[in-house]
Amino acid sequence: MIVLLGFAFLAGLVTILAPCIWPILPIVLSSSVAGQGRRRPLGITLGIVLSFAFFTLAISYLVKAFHFDADTLRIAAIAIIALLGVTMIVPALSRIFETMISRLSGLFGQKSKQGSGLLAGFITGISLGIVWSPCAGPILAAIAALAATGKVTLDVVLVTLAYVTGVGIPLFIFAYGGRQVITRTRFLSRYTGRIQQVFGVIMLLTAVAMYTNYDKYLETKLLNDFPQFSASLNGFESNGAVTKQLDLLKGEKPAAMVPVSENNPYFNADQPAPDFVGITKWLNTDSSISLKDLRGKVVLVDFWTYTCINCIRTLPHVTAWYDKYKNDGFIVIGVHTPEFQFEHNAKNVLDAIKMYHIHYPVAQDNDYATWNNYNNEYWPAEYLIDANGIIRRTHFGEGEYGKMEMAIRTLLQQAGHNVSSPLSNVPNQTPNGNQSPETYLGACRMEYFYPSGTVNKGDREFVLAKDPAVNSFSLGGNWDIKQHEAVAGPGAELNYHFHADKVFLVLRPGKAAAGAKVKVFVDGKPANVSDAGLDVKDGVLTIDSARLYNLVNLIGSTGSHLLRLKFETPGIEAFAFTFG
What is the predicted pLDDT for the residue at 64? Predict the structure, then answer.
């Protein structure tokens, strides 16, 4: 943990060099030279780091508790920044503002007639902390993902505080040093009033840029023109020690860490199975089911979601086990826990049940109640329960199908059933070798955007990088980045430099009607019979419903290629890439 705290501090410390902090620097400097308070730079710095830390960690809780749009808070913060800029331009308004702040400061025990400027700076800093989104390397991306999913622990808070402490030090030096230069330089000090008005105009223009997201357009252009900024700032966070600590912070434990029983190599767990709770709807069955109803049977609980390619590749094995052993005291309970909002729809799940020939009961776990009851963190995840209600084997992700089937057969034999038939002969579709990682396009889990790692919710206009780094993507044209998806606007394009055999993308027509079109190019040419995925015809993908689409199929020839998507119809919603 000490290693992670140290790297988080260093990541914050060097953020001052990144283009993503440059849009707020004019406001920091403007506010620092405004008024007479010597402690104004300290107030600005504290306001930025504390409000950024608080809202990063708490925004998901606040939205859930008070049911407001997080964009409302951002707009209010920008309005405060614009108002402060206006007060700097108009001296009369500036005096009124200073009087109000002095009176408010008196409530907190500040006796100085003109005040120390701490509170005025703090108000500005709070607003900046709300609207600022730093370039997210692996450390900050992990913090944001954990906060968005409501998994804020003491360790997450400490890492966040270490990061903002690192940010605060150079930010304070910049604010304090800038104030000192302007107020103590004899030539400049004679024009302090005019300088404040100029800075007020800059502050007002910056607020307008933030409201229109033009600041992010400029930031993206800078990052595309100077990708070395992102590479140098994020590179040191990707070493093995940090990655290991981040896995522990996120609670990720590889299956190999689970102890294996000495008596039977197929069993790796021994604990009472939690029940199914908070189920929204039961599908493929006439009634609800509890584990008590299944006592005496061997039960496989399979957590899945129908757009997850890893889940899809495991389903042929799971359905084959059920069809083969269902008459021998074996049952599968599929727990469908949605990853995206549209996966809450029962009709969509029923369509997937039919598509993948699922004959066993499926529980819609829309509120993550059973997911949390099992302390589950993975799609897919399998929990094998014996006839006495004890979990005897767990497996997360793909693979080890033979071991799971042997565990099923062993438990059935222990329960008195004859299972002498041979093992199921289902081909293993899990790809071998390195391939591009699962890549999310929504703001809350985006981390492979080239070259800055992530972008803000609500960003509109992007400059397309023609050849992003391997395992990263770039956006072009107009996009509305939402929490979990990216919505294509006019002229929307996407480039992904992938390494894989197959490319999949979760898409939904959204505001576009069914039949919306996306042109697909591989290495600059329209996708054809040699590289087009199952859903691409004559280089065109047609979006008919919310599901996983196969864009590229290199027919077993895994390699690095450039995928380009041109969204012909505005309104299409893109969620996540997966690879095979």
Answer: 62
Segment 487-496 shows an average pLDDT of: 95
* 124: nearest Cα among 257, 2, 32, 6: 32
Q: From CA 541, how far away is CA 532, in angstroms rounded?
A: 10
Residue type, 478: N
Separation of alpha carbons 580 and 574, rounded Å: 18
Closest CA to 135 of 225, 50, 21, 39: 21
Q: Look up tokens 């990052």; give the residue.
A: 223
| Cα–Cα distance list, 367 to 276, 364, 400, 508 (Å) | 12, 9, 29, 22
Give me the torsion for CA of 192, 198, 200, 206, rounded to 10°: -140
What sign has the CA pseudo-torsion 313, 318, 320, 323? negative
pLDDT tens string 332-361? 999 999 988 888 889 989 989 998 999 999
Show the tokens assigned to 575.
């969620």
What topology does CATH give the domain 439-579? Jelly Rolls (2.60.120)
> 335 near 371, Cβ under 8 Å?
yes
Q: How far apart are CA 76 and CA 94, in angstroms?
A: 20
What does the DSSP 8-state code read for residue 516? E
> Which residue matches tokens 């129908």?
306
Report which of 359, 361, 386, 381 is spatially closest to residue 371, judged by C-alpha positions.
381
How many helices (H) and strands (E) in the chain? 17, 20
Please tell me the least confidently modeled range out of 9-13, 181-185, 477-481, 504-508.
181-185
> Which residue bears the tokens 């079109």?
517
- Which ranges of 149-235 would DSSP assign to H, the alpha helix? 154-184, 186-189, 192-212, 214-225, 228-235
363 vs 101: CA distance, rounded Å? 57
Contacts of residue 541, Cβ cutoff 8 Å, sequence gap at least 6: 507, 517, 518, 519, 520, 535, 549, 551, 565
Q: Would you kindly state where each structural domain of the chain is located, as residue ranges?
A: 2-248, 255-414, 439-579
- What top-level class would CATH report for the domain 255-414? alpha beta
Residue type, position 229, single letter:
F
- E strand intervals along 228-290: 271-272, 281-283
SS in 3 state form for 482-501? Answer: CCCCEEECCCCEEEEEEEEC
Local structure of 304: helix, strand or coil: strand
DSSP 3-state of 400: coil
Instruction: Tell me: pLDDT of 570 over 50.
Output: yes
pTM score above 0.85: no
**Residue 457 in 3-state DSSP?**
coil
Tell me the two tokens of residue 275: 């029940």
Query: At residue 497, what are phi and psi to the nearest 5 degrees?
Result: -95, 95
Reported as a single tens digit per residue, the pLDDT across 517-533 is 999 999 999 999 899 99
Measured N-to-C along each axis, helices 2-14 and 138-148 cross at an angle, to the nearest 10 degrees, of 110
Two domains, one topology: 255-414 and 439-579:
no
Q: Which amino acid is at 352?
A: A
**Cα–Cα distance between 199 and 87 in angstroms, integer?**
11
| Token pair for 243 | 């990655």
Tell me which amino acid residue 497 is.
H
Nearest-angstrom CA–CA distance, 131 and 323: 54
- CA 336 to chain CA centroid, nearest Å: 21
In the structure, what pLDDT confidence band is assigned to residue 259 with cuts at 50, 70 and 90? Answer: very low
